[in-house]
Write a structure and sequence with these properties.
Elements: H1 2-18, H2 23-29, H3 31-49, E1 58-63, E2 66-73, E3 86-90, H4 107-116, E4 122-126, E5 157-158, H5 177-187, E6 192-195, E7 199-204, H6 207-230, H7 238-248, H8 253-264
Parallel strand pairs: 5-6
Antiparallel strand pairs: 1-2, 1-4, 2-3, 4-7, 6-7
Helix pairs in contact: 2-3, 3-6, 3-8, 4-5
């Protein structure tokens, strides 16, 4: 009798492991997941409000209870993302929990970075216009002020032609795991990478920091472009960048509060 009960319990456990709980069930069961999902939804709205994304673009967050999965909205415009739009994916970009809804085609940007960078928990992708020239001209996007110190010695550029197979002429989308891995390798140990003729990807250890870095990288691009029209640009030295980043990123709660209140107003 006890053996039968043990086998029955064991089978139930195996079934539960094979059938992961839905996003909503995870939210109901774990406060950390609930907080992450709600922050993810809010971040979508903030990124739209700050012109970091438009009808296109997306942000992900690593599952706080399972580092091998991440949350990302289904394929909708960032400004309208709701809790019920959030899906869960594995590190190959495969939707979990039997979720058959249409996913973002470039979810492999997120899976590639999150899989290869354990220090990063949130990834953002968008196409903000001020960024694009730096992926086209050979001019490096470098930190011109303290707010963008995380750019370090400059943002690398992902050249999809170097990795696309068998034809280097693609639709410019990071639409499979191989390209996602290649993008991550181009990013290296940086937190911001440009995508030639496409846009950018940003990463951080938290949603708030990823949003902060994205907003100020775009501002940096605008300021740098204007400064280059006037003459020789004085960039932050590597030492200044390290020190400034450490100082300013202790205060990211301040702009997050501002941005949150803006998008929460009726």
């Amino acid at each position: 009798m006890m053996k039968k009960q043990f086998l029955s319990s064991f089978m139930i456990l195996l079934f539960a492991q094979a059938h992961a709980t839905t996003v909503q069930e995870q939210m109901d069961q774990n406060p950390a997941v609930k907080t992450a999902i709600e922050e993810l939804v809010l971040a979508n709205h903030i990124l739209y409000d700050q012109n970091a994304v438009d009808g296109y673009g997306h942000i992900s967050v690593r599952n706080p209870t399972n580092p091998n999965t991440f949350f990302l909205a289904r394929s909708v415009a960032p400004s309208v993302v709701k809790v019920e739009d959030i899906m869960e994916f594995d590190m190959n970009g495969k939707a979990l929990n039997g979720d058959m809804r249409v996913a973002y085609g470039e979810r492999f940007i997120h899976s590639g970075v999150l899989k290869n960078r354990p220090d990063i928990n949130s990834v953002i992708h968008g196409h903000a216009a001020p960024i694009l020239p730096y992926g086209l001209t050979g001019t490096t996007l470098k930190p011109v002020y303290h707010m963008s110190a995380f750019l370090g010695e400059g943002a690398p550029v992902f050249e999809i032609r170097n990795f696309a197979k068998p034809n280097p002429d693609t639709d410019m989308f990071v639409s499979n795991g191989e390209l996602g891995d290649a993008l991550s390798k181009t990013m290296g140990l940086q937190y911001f990478v440009l995508m030639r003729g496409h846009g950018y990807a940003a990463g951080a250890d938290s949603i708030k920091k990823a949003v902060f870095r994205t907003v100020y990288a775009i501002q940096n691009a605008s300021i740098q472009s204007e400064a280059m029209k006037m003459g020789q640009v004085q960039y932050l030295s590597p030492g200044e960048a390290v020190t400034a980043q450490e100082t300013i990123e202790k205060t990211i709660g301040r702009p997050w509060q501002l941005w949150s209140e803006r998008v929460k107003k009726p």
